[in-house]
Amino acid sequence: xxxxxxxxxxxxxxxxxxxxxxxxxxxxxxxxxxxxxxxxxxxxxxxxxxxxxxxxxxxxxxxxxxxxxxxxxxxxxxxxxxxxxxxxxxxxxxxxxxxxxxxxxxxxxxxxxxxxxxxxxxxxxxxxxxxxxxxxxxxxxxxxxxxxxxxxxxxxxxxxxxxxxxxxxxxxxxxxxxxxxxxxxxxxxxxxxxxxxxxxxxxxxxxxxxxxxxxxxxxxxxxxxxxxxxxxxxxxxxxxxxxxxxxxxxxxxxxxxxxxxxxxxxxxxxxxxxxxxxxxxxxxxxxxxxxxxxxxxxxxxxxxxxxxxxxxxxxxxxxxxxxxxxxxxxxxxxxxxxxxxxxxxxxxxxxxxxxxxxxxxxxxxxxxxxxxxxxxxxxxxxxxxxxxxxxxxxxxxxxxxxxxxxxxxxxxxxxxxxxxxxxxxxxxxxxxxxxxxxxxxxxxxxxxxxxxxxxxxxxxxxxxxxxxxxxxxxxxxxxxxxxxxxxxxxxxxxxxxxxxxxxxxxxxxxxxxxxxxxxxxxxxxxxxxxxxxxxxxxxxxxxxxxxxxxxxxxxxxxxxxxxxxxxxxxxxxxxxxxxxxxxxxxxxxxxxxxxxxxxxxxxxxxxxxxxxxxxxxxxxxxxxxxxxxxxxxxxxxxxxxxxxxxxxxxxxxxxxxxxxxxxxxxxxxxxxxxxxxxxxxxxxxxxxxxxxxxxxxxxxxxxxxxxxxxxxxxxxxxxxxxxxxxxxxxxxxxxxxxxxxxxxxxxxxxxxxxxxxxxxxxxxxxxxxxxxxxxxxxxxxxxxxxxxxxxxxxxxxxxxxxxxxxxxxxxxxxxxxxxxxxxxxxxxxxxxxxxxxxxxxxxxxxxxxxxxxxxxxxxxxxxxxxxxxxxxxxxxxxxxxxxxxxxxx
Length: 889
Fold this sequence. Notes:
Residues 583-680 form the POPLD domain. 31% of the residues are buried. A six-stranded antiparallel β-sheet has the order 3-12-8-11-10-9. A six-stranded mixed β-sheet has the order 14-15-16-13-7-17, with helices on both faces. It is 31% helix and 18% strand. The chain is globular and about 95 Å long. Strand 1 and strand 2 form a beta hairpin. It folds into six domains: 22-89, no CATH class; 102-146, no CATH class; 157-211, no CATH class; 328-427, 2-Layer Sandwich (Alpha-Beta Plaits); 432-606, no CATH class; 650-885, Aminomethyltransferase beta-barrel domains (Elongation Factor Tu (Ef-tu), domain 3), CATH 2.40.30. It has 25 helices and 28 strands. It is an alpha+beta fold. Helix 2 packs across helix 4 (72-86) and helix 8 runs antiparallel to helix 9 (227-240).
């Protein structure tokens, strides 16, 4: 009986007594497309044989309008069928939601379902036999929340916090009285009022004490009218006098490293001991996977799978947004009255840009923003940007660097300005935030959230608004900058873009672009407001909390923005377009979250992490931060990745491991380089060992190796060069076990794409005597089927087999069935032809085949060779790829 009841579930008896399967009928109806046989579209279906064939009596002539009209019913049926088929398998309302709105708990918690679908969800929940409390998860059948039996979560924490504050207040009582002399009666005490009063008194005492200290300091330095004294007092005033209920304040380090002065929620105080939070951390933590890197907790990737969606959003639909507040900002303030101080700043810029910002460049005059690699000495350390700004009394320089090099750049700047009272270094690490938006809808997304309803909004804002009709983001020149004041974006219920009333012609658009190139979109007052401590602090004055904004929203202004008052704050934003066709928004730190909250409500905008940033750079054929192996931090990251892959391989059982040592690669056995990543050290040793091989050496025979009196291998053939690589690997491993470094310099150094480089042979072939390997960055595309992976090996084609590989790359060679030949029929080149490694490679959605980026020996590859060979780790198949150099420096 039990089995038959299960089998008959979902069926009912029909007219003839047979069981009707409603689920099967539903599936059948979703796949059927109704049609009509009425087809008057052919004017002469019989095709009679006329002696004279005209246009009217032509056989089977198709009348297109008649055909469309006759097939109208079938076309509509096809569209309905597509919709029915899409939702045929959806038996619950939450199953038809888009991916962005899907939640795991939506099956039993109607609060996770959109409001317009909750009645149907509640109805579906009521069909089962389970209890109501479990069914709706704290919500009744009408959608109202059930009464909680005891406090949980946040409410329980709130009660415990009140208890601690009461104990704290009891310690400060004087003979049974509170601070104002009011007698305490525990039984009749208004708890919330007392807590508020105690908090206000404590803040008042602290602020008065700090102000007294500032006044004493100003009196002490009354003779000194330097910027340093003023900036230090302004910083203390900003930290100690909070001018809003949101708790926002400016936190700038003046000639000192910035640190978080206070953490708003005591609940999270211990969680930021080593790794600080971004302004949008709590928002991201619910929607993305976070990683701890460079002293920050950074979004790595969304929890939702988005590899394809990222590519679509970047190329032709929507846009992507990142919170890039982890990029550190330094502001140099120099008095223009001191020529010596100005020369010191110019020397700093010349060194950091490796000579790009000089007296003859437009970067030093402030007309353009410089982007490139920040150099310390002659070594590139990380990507960065420098902008020079001139005002009446000050020369200001804004330097933005990657967080991996924060300490090094700070120490370099601090040493350069030491002892100079006319130059101040402001560490705006926790004072200035930034957001990056890229994609075809990036400009439209930013214009929909930045508003200024003042009558005198300024020419800069008007120029920004006039760009609303530009549908192509590439129209705006790279390096363009805008600076203006905007209102709190939370005053609007949703993003609203204000299009201009008139359609502009080509001449008007050209005039707009000329104004943008002439820095017509920069409001100097807004720019100075962002770069000064007082300006950022004043932007927080009367900053509204969400509760305050909610009280100002009324039913009669539903759908309209909240009316503006004179007390509502305005804050500065700086928007500039970088070399990647992305828009970077620079704004005060505590305005980042309000802007971000409104930005993510823009249609077709997708939140992204650092992994999506690498994906976009890869699809463009450019280097991302994870590909910068020629920098010290990038090389360290690649070594850490190799160690993690090694540990992961060792954890596997022996039957599940790939045996790299027994892999047959042509005439060699096993991987010479480490199979767990990009082994730049072994590649460096191999390329310089091959330089020691005599030109007239006979490599066709393997002869026993010879050693000198120091037991060092004498390199006479290619076999000796390969064996010397293994010797150096063992030597480095033994030194690492002692806790020392086997080498001090990075094994490789980057040279420009157009620069020629040769490997020297006059060096001491020891662990520390091998010079750095000059490399060039390149991008490549697969000409055959198959995907390449990170860490793949790059070979130059041997001279004896160039013809076969080139024909294979051009798909000229065919097999007996006429198909393309497999590269497995061609032998893998020897290690003497190994010239480089791949840092990033996979299937490129924008091109439809595999692409990647990597580095090769600068002396081994010339532009006259069209193809290279690339082999994945653990594979014996090479793939032919076209390549081109990437201009990095």
